Amino acid sequence: xxxxxxxxxxxxxxxxxxxxxxxxxxxxxxxxxxxxxxxxxxxxxxxxxxxxxxxxxxxxxxxxxxxxxxxxxxxxxxxxxxxxxxxxxxxxxxxxxxxxxxxxxxxxxxxxxxxxxxxxxxxxxxxxxxxxxxxxxxxxxxxxxxxxxxxxxxxxxxxxxxxxxxxxxxxxxxxxxxxxxxxxxxxxxxxxxxxxxxxxxxxxxxxxxxxxxxxxxxxxxxxxxxxxxxxxxxxxxxxxxxxxxxxxxxxxxxxxxxxxxxxxxxxxxxxxxxxxxxxxxxxxxxx
Length: 287
Description:
Strand 9 (178-181) and strand 10 (185-189) form a beta hairpin. The longest helix has 22 residues, at 215-236. 18% of the residues lie in helices and 25% in strands. A 6-stranded mixed beta sheet has the order 2-1-3-4-8-7. Strands 9-10-11-13-12 form a 5-stranded antiparallel beta sheet. A two-stranded antiparallel sheet has the order 5-6. The chain is of the alpha+beta class.
């Protein structure tokens, strides 16, 4: 009987006896600052060794150290995690890391560069399937060799500005609170909220119309929508939501960079909410 190809990424955790190569790089270049999180720490050797050396560090792993971290962190590193996850799980890790990172913090993603084939492989010892893939990120590459690559991530609105850039979303205000980010999209709280928790989700690529996005960009926005809704629920506890995208000036679009509104709604915030988004044409709202 053929084994079903279900991913078991926990089987890739290694019981180390020395610090991982990416963490040694971060130590050597004095990049481990403030409150530190080892996201996807596996059995936790890097975490425990750095703690013994006096660093303020927390380790989290979905399988081995399952208490989800609280608060914000000044430095986060994620070592050899993304390579053994399928795309949706990769996006979830990146959203979690960006959400846990303090506004002025820095995260580091280490990925393998020695993978010869992508796909499922049968673990030689456990006889369970694990997935592996090559990962390329649109972030600053700090170090690379034939075995690994180390990327530096900072929040989208903290990156250097392109000279002459006029789009307010491409030069996103440094004051806005970023909720989460992936390689493709970023979500943040609206600077002029309609209601508490009003959030925007945008693609990083500058494109005016939702209908001109790639399939990948549209899917990435929808994946992020679910995550952002969860974070708004946790903080604001709304009673409902409106979701909307304006396309072209006739439909009210004023910033010509695609943006999805996620607007929390609360009992009693309007006299009669019936009709919801039909209210974009007020006389058609009630029917």
